[in-house]
Specification:
It is elongated, with a radius of gyration of 29 Å. Helix 4 (121-134) crosses helix 5 (151-163) and helix 13 (341-362) packs antiparallel against helix 14. It is α+β, with helices and mostly antiparallel strands. The chain has helices spanning 2-23, 80-86, 98-107, 121-134, 151-163, 165-174, 182-190, 194-203, 221-230, 254-270, 272-279, 286-316, 341-362, 368-386; strands spanning 32-39, 52-59, 64-72, 90-97, 112-117, 141-143, 178-181, 211-213, 243-246. Residues 1-27 have low confidence and may be disordered. The longest helix has 31 residues, at 286-316. Strand 2 and strand 3 form a beta hairpin.
């Protein structure tokens, strides 16, 4: 009997405890902080030229410190670069611990800032719930779009869904007005990277030259960081001050210097056929003549192949920014016409007119300090095909 009485007392006790736990409020989320991490640009990798954004969630009570990253991709995918050019890239949301995340940026000498977001407990709870749903294997992938769906815009969507109209209204307030074109937005990030600047601007079509509103520029992590810092809710500022978790050395990398040197070195090398004709009659020197012909022919064939790629992407890419690409006026697949005596002169006149038209159209928006040496080289080459006795 005594054992039965103890069992009944313990059973009642556990039932009462269980009932109390059900009726008690949800545990406080005050110890959980949500932050926006912004990784500034680096010249080490093409994909890092415009920086990166991520969300940090820190739970001091349970000693958890996690980073959620919408900018994860798999370069080992055999179709990655083909899908990249066609606008069918698959990116996905990943989760890693903070120490692993920050260590990779320390190794790459890439500055990282943090802004703690002033979210209510309801907002934190909803944000964490959304991330837990999105991190599932069946939900974590999305179709990447450089402007509309990237690591920054996905965070905006996350915050909008977590916070609601207050966030949308505040973000709209600080993003009012017209903005520069997409090409102009990207130019400051590429001013020290000659190859990347020419490559990026060659792929961009007409749509990248239209004026944008300031909301569209939020695809850039630096812009998102700035707007988040400006946002003000009725009762509080949306975020804390911008603090550096790691500040990299601002000195230009040797990688950038080497690429710039290589670029201008190639331009000088490609001037050899022209200088050879101006300074000496290279026809008297078979070795020089063959070298000049091989150099100029190889370059024109390479330029023609690049032009063929531009035409293909302008038609078949799913990225709107690659449509209606006027770079085809100077980078096109028709340069082999210069190799034939009957078509050389007329082709040179048409090609020269195309280059001059391109310069006229883009004189105010194209980054000519990088592109002008290449265009000038083409103008000189085409002029030698037009002038009598220079074929």
């Amino acid at each position: 009997m005594r054992i039965l009485k103890k069992f009944l007392i313990l059973s009642i006790f556990f039932l009462l405890c269980h009932k109390a736990s059900i009726s008690s409020p949800i545990p406080s989320l005050q110890n959980i902080s949500v932050s926006l991490l912004t990784c500034e640009k680096t010249d080490r990798y093409i994909y890092a030229l415009f920086g990166h954004s991520a969300i940090r969630i820190r739970d001091e009570a349970h000693q958890l410190d996690l980073v959620y990253n919408y900018g994860t991709f798999d370069t080992n995918d055999p179709g990655f670069y083909v899908n990249f050019l066609h606008g069918r890239m698959k990116y996905f949301l990943s989760q890693t611990d903070y120490q692993t995340f920050i260590r990779s940026y320390l190794m790459d000498e890439q500055s990282v800032t943090e802004q703690k977001l002033h979210l209510s407990e309801t907002g934190k709870s909803k944000l964490i719930s959304i991330l837990q749903t999105q991190i599932k294997p069946e939900n974590r992938s999305y179709n990447y779009d450089f402007i509309r769906q990237n690591c920054s815009t996905k965070i905006i969507d996350l915050l909008s869904e977590s916070i609601g109209p207050d966030f949308d209204q505040s973000l709209s307030e600080v993003s009012k007005g017209k903005g520069p074109s997409i090409r102009e937005l990207l130019a400051p990030y590429l001013k020290h990277d000659k190859f990347e600047m020419i490559g990026m601007n060659s792929f961009l079509g007409k749509q990248s030259d239209t004026l944008t509103n300031r909301t569209l520029s939020l695809f850039l992590p630096d812009t998102l960081r700035k707007r988040i810092d400006e946002m003000q809710f009725p009762e509080r500022k949306f975020s804390g001050p911008i603090t550096y978790l790691y500040k990299a050395n601002p000195n230009a990398s040797s990688h950038t210097f080497l690429l710039s040197t290589l670029y201008y070195g190639l331009i000088l090398l490609l001037l050899f056929p022209i200088l050879g004709r101006l300074l000496i009659d290279i026809r008297k020197y078979p070795v020089l003549k063959r070298s000049a012909s091989l150099l100029s022919g190889s370059f024109l064939l390479l330029l023609s192949a690049a032009g063929l790629l531009l035409i293909y992407l302008s038609i078949y890419s799913e990225l709107d920014l690659m449509r209606h690409n006027f770079n085809i006026l100077w980078c096109h697949p028709f340069y082999p016409a210069l190799f034939f005596r009957k078509t050389s002169k007329m082709a040179a006149i048409v090609f020269l007119a195309g280059i001059l038209t391109f310069i006229f159209l883009y004189i105010n928006t194209m980054p000519f300090p990088a592109l002008f040496p290449l265009l000038l080289l083409l103008i000189l080459w085409l002029s030698f095909h037009i002038l009598p006795g220079k074929e």
